[in-house]
Amino acid sequence: MVVKSVAINAYQNAMLQRRKSVDDKVTKSLVKPQAPVKDFKDTFTDSLKTVNDMQAEKKQMIEEFASGKKQNIHELMISMQKAGLAVQMTGAVRSKLMQSYQEIMRMPF
Q1: Which of 7, 62, 76, 89 to pair with 104, CA 20 to 30 A apart?
Q2: What span, in angstroms and rounded, lies between the C-alpha atoms of 55 and 3?
Q3: What is the pLDDT of residues 66-86, one digit of tens each?
Q4: Does the pLDDT of residue 1 top 60, yes or no?
Q5: Which of 29, 92, 86, 20 is nearest to 55 (CA)?
Q6: Residues 43, 22 contacting (CB under 8 angstroms)
Q7: Which residues contact 45 (CB under 8 A, 6 or more apart)?
Q8: What are the E-state strand segments in 11-77?
Q9: Cα first-last separation, the chain
Q10: Among residues 61, 64, 90, 54, which one has the least CA distance to residue 76?
């Protein structure tokens, strides 16, 4: 009888250690590293730089197409559409920011 209870205790201890190691592995795998949070100014500045880069790329592709260096009309059209959409979205964001600013200025203090 004593031998049996010792064997059961050893088995239970082994199972607890195994469960603990699996739980630790799962917990470590679920923890995601936090990305650093950028403030609004940096995000907005990066977005404006990206739009400016798209416009410069579009201008360069138009010049290369007009001079005959590159004849890929598909890439040119895609670049022009991307740059146009980026400018439209920037204008929409600007309008929303201006509306928000005006709403804040109308608030009574």
Answers
A1: 89
A2: 81
A3: 999 988 899 999 999 999 999
A4: no
A5: 86
A6: no
A7: none
A8: none
A9: 83
A10: 61
